Amino acid sequence: MIEWFLRYIHGFLAVTVTGKNTARFLNLCVRHNIFVWNLSMESETKACFFMKLCDIYALHPFLRKTRTRLFITKRRGLPFLLHKYRKRKPFFLFVAVIFLLVCFLSTRIWRIEIKGNASLGEDTIMEYLKHQGITYGISASAIDHDELELSLRKDFAPVIWASVYEEGTKLVVCIQEKIEVKQTTTETRTCMDLVAAKDATIASIITRSGTPKVKKGDKVKKGGLLVCGRQEILDDNGEVGTYYYKSADADIYGITFYDYSDDIPMKMICKKATGEVTKRYFIRILDYRFITPSLKKEYAAAETVENSSQFCILDSFYLPVYWGEITTREMENETVSVSKSEAKKLALTHFQQFLADLEENGVRIMDKNVMMEQRENSYHIYGRVKACENIAETAPTEVKQMKRKEPVNESE
Question: Residue 139 carries which DSSP code?
Answer without folding.
Answer: B
